[in-house]
Amino acid sequence: MFKDPKLAPELAVSQWFNTDKPLTLEGLRGRVVYLHAFQLLCPGCVAHAIPQVQKIEKIFRRSDLQIIGLHTVFEHHAAMTPVTLEAFIHEYRLQSPIGVDLADGKSPLPVTMRRYEMQGTPSSFLIGRDGTIIHRGFGIEDDMVVGARIASALAMPIPEVEKPAAPTGDASCADGVCPV
Amino acid sequence: MFKDPKLAPELAVSQWFNTDKPLTLEGLRGRVVYLHAFQLLCPGCVAHAIPQVQKIEKIFRRSDLQIIGLHTVFEHHAAMTPVTLEAFIHEYRLQSPIGVDLADGKSPLPVTMRRYEMQGTPSSFLIGRDGTIIHRGFGIEDDMVVGARIASALAMPIPEVEKPAAPTGDASCADGVCPV
Amino acid sequence: MFKDPKLAPELAVSQWFNTDKPLTLEGLRGRVVYLHAFQLLCPGCVAHAIPQVQKIEKIFRRSDLQIIGLHTVFEHHAAMTPVTLEAFIHEYRLQSPIGVDLADGKSPLPVTMRRYEMQGTPSSFLIGRDGTIIHRGFGIEDDMVVGARIASALAMPIPEVEKPAAPTGDASCADGVCPV
Amino acid sequence: MFKDPKLAPELAVSQWFNTDKPLTLEGLRGRVVYLHAFQLLCPGCVAHAIPQVQKIEKIFRRSDLQIIGLHTVFEHHAAMTPVTLEAFIHEYRLQSPIGVDLADGKSPLPVTMRRYEMQGTPSSFLIGRDGTIIHRGFGIEDDMVVGARIASALAMPIPEVEKPAAPTGDASCADGVCPV
């Protein structure tokens, strides 16, 4: 799934809200990503993490930061269905894309949560322009620190994104670039 | 349902949590009751009203105050079922009895909510020892004011509770009193 | 100074602000008194106690509660003079009477502070209608608890104030009562 | 006083605390400076600005950010003397250098305050590595925004500091450089 062990693990999402098409970290390479994992019945998420994300949305709206929410249900599964999540998103007026972490039945923990080895919710991951994890957070994080970390990540130069080698004898214009 | 128009309307509850037997305001006459109405997806309820109720539970635990929660779902009905409420009560560690306001299908608003003519959630009602409403609250209430109101209500003398007249020619011991 | 050991010790004040005439606890017998001791350079006083007192002033303004501030300077004496206190009272818009605790030179601690055996600032004392101390507080106190305590104290019946025995052979009408 | 109109005006300070030698913005060129102006009896300064500065001190302690406080007394001059300021600094455990803004008697406003055309207190100025003002703040500023601004400023490359031209026919080693 993720060849380079230094890269942030790819997302595994069963359903998206607030976006027309699925997002992948690979497709976002070159941008800073703020990934926040939550459960709608998690008191710390609702009291602290969600309001903090809303603040991030507002403050960095003119930057190229991509905020992604991940609903990582690992308990009370029957109580936190996508139907309830949709109403939650509506009531809390969340604007950024939110994915439902894929439940594969192999564990009470969904797939992305296991890939990131999250300890619980709320968790957050600041992913740099090069796709690596700059910071892993668990629990309440201080606003000033969060602001400083994101600004530092945004200030880092955009890396050379590796372009896939043009397939021999194929002059297609995949990925928007037309190879000779 | 409620003969005396000055009395707080009786509760209509389809399911109770945190109590073995259903509660009625009539059965609680003589005690002060703090009735708080909420929805588990209501941001103001979760951020302000629920923590305030938890504080009331703690501060007045040695008094004879009876706290009652009422889950008054009037929107997103499929998202806030008793299954989700039960997990919510567990996660937020709510201790006092909580009833699900009865949905009778005649309105998106449940029955008790209509009886009290609530404007929305969070709402709260301080009911005195005589069964009348001392204060109606809607939205965020100040902690100091809430503490003062409850203490004042508790300080009021316990009224003479009207005892039902003993039925003629019937020597039963209903209500724990044995008439001649 | 205070004959009855159960009574709250009398105040010893060298200068008053926000009042035309000096206050004494004896003269306030029959009313509930909220006495708060502070220093203008005490961080906990400024951040927590003073705003709480301002809330008490607002919430209980229609009751007969008497709020009294006491500037109990026990360190940095040269930095917290009455001149600085006066500007502090102006800037923080304090409304209730405030007295400067009397420095008698026998101790770095002023007189009233010693009489009450205060541990430091902020300290607060809730004094009942009968003149006894209902509660001693030191440090940050919870708003809801403070509101409840004051309301309970206000709800207590006004005690019979001991009237001075009429001097024999003197039909004067001292204290507003005319003895036979 | 300040030749380049784009540069932040130089400080005019009559007395320093928390530093052995006076600071000048010119001497700090190449570093980011967070300059905060306050008065010890200003409620907004004590409640919001000072705690925010303490947070900045903690979070950016490993960066080369220079924090400077400026006591800009423009009212109640007799109440906010250096003696009181010294006790204030002690009680609030302020760590960064703090200067007393120079009172020249020409105005109730001290000199630096006039140079910066401050509107009042609390005011803050984020000064970039090139000596220009990046942001002017007045009143309460959001923690996340402040953190982001400072981190962005710190991420800016250190500019070439203009070296003064060697005075003709003068081989002195002023400013630590020895011209030919």
Automatic annotation (TrEMBL), chains A, B, C, D:
Family annotation (Pfam families): Redoxin
Thioredoxin domain mapped to chain residues: 2-155
Domain of life: Bacteria
Record-linked InterPro entries: Redoxin (IPR013740), Thioredoxin-like_sf (IPR036249), Thioredoxin_domain (IPR013766), Thioredoxin_ResA/DsbE_sf (IPR050553)
Protein name: Redoxin family protein
Organism field: Lacibacterium aquatile
Taxonomic lineage of the native organism: Bacteria, Pseudomonadati, Pseudomonadota, Alphaproteobacteria, Rhodospirillales
